[in-house]
Specification:
By secondary structure, the chain is of the alpha/beta class. It has one domain (56-214): Glycoside hydrolase/deacetylase (TIM Barrel), CATH 3.20.20. Helix content is 34%, strand content 13%. The strands form three sheets. A three-stranded parallel beta sheet has the order 1-2-5, covered by helices on one side. Strands 6-7-8 form a three-stranded parallel beta sheet, covered by helices on one side. Strand 3 (93-95) and strand 4 (98-100) form a beta hairpin. The longest helix is centred in the N-terminal third of the chain and has 23 residues, at 14-36.
Length: 215
């Protein structure tokens, strides 16, 4: 993209900007008027999947990205022409008696500055890695909200969520997740019949907060 030089920047006075906006508006009205004179109906279709493919598969890694990890999973995925989504646990993770602290600034920077520009993505995975089905609605909402708000503080845009321990089966848990601001939630299944979220001509999942991943 061409950068604006000092002369061009100085020429962007309020008066010039106003004239430019008025000219753009008049041009838009002219185009609209010309378009309305045509009797040919406008037909358009939108592909369900990117590049009109028949299906889409999401690859995720339930871990934080680490620069220099061996084996180098990130480089391997990129070499295959693929990308991957990483989980974001914003607080502590608990696995049995072991406690793993939340990510440090270096890991966050590696994800956001190096991987995301290459097409990698991320998803919320709890403020703490706990079973939200065991919580009340209010407790689950507080936990989901902490994950959501912290991701925003880190410069992320929270969209999808993966339930820790796949604990998102209760309707109350799903409602709490929706109320926190996330747009979808997913959990694991061992049933192949549940592995297709939007089959055939269906354009949206039956329940955006109970989307399934085949384990």
């Amino acid at each position: 993209m061409r950068k604006l030089g000092p002369r061009m920047i100085n020429s962007l006075t309020p008066g010039n900007i106003g004239l430019a906006m008025m000219a753009a508006l008049l041009l838009g009205v002219l185009v609209l008027a010309v378009g309305c004179q045509s009797n040919t109906p406008l037909n358009a279709s939108v592909a369900k999947w990117f590049d009109n493919h028949a299906a889409a598969i999401s690859i995720t890694n339930d871990d934080w990205p680490i620069r220099g990890r061996e084996p180098d999973i990130d480089s391997y995925v990129l070499e295959q022409g693929l990308v991957m989504g990483y989980e974001v646990v914003t607080g502590n993770s608990f696995y049995g008696d072991r406690i793993f602290s939340g990510p440090d600034d270096e890991r966050i920077a590696y994800l956001m500055s190096e991987l995301v520009p290459k097409g990698f993505s991320y998803f919320g995975h709890g403020h703490n890695h706990i079973d939200h089905d065991e919580l009340s609605y209010e407790e689950a909402l507080e936990s989901f909200q902490a994950n959501y708000d912290t991701m925003i503080d880190w410069g992320m845009t929270p969209v999808a969520y993966g339930y820790p321990r796949s604990a998102g089966h209760e309707e109350e848990t799903q409602r709490a997740l929706e109320a926190s601001g996330f747009l979808s939630g997913r959990l694991l299944t061992r049933d192949p019949s549940e592995s297709y979220n939007i089959p055939g001509d269906q354009l949206a999942p039956d329940n955006a907060f109970r989307r399934t991943l085949l384990l």
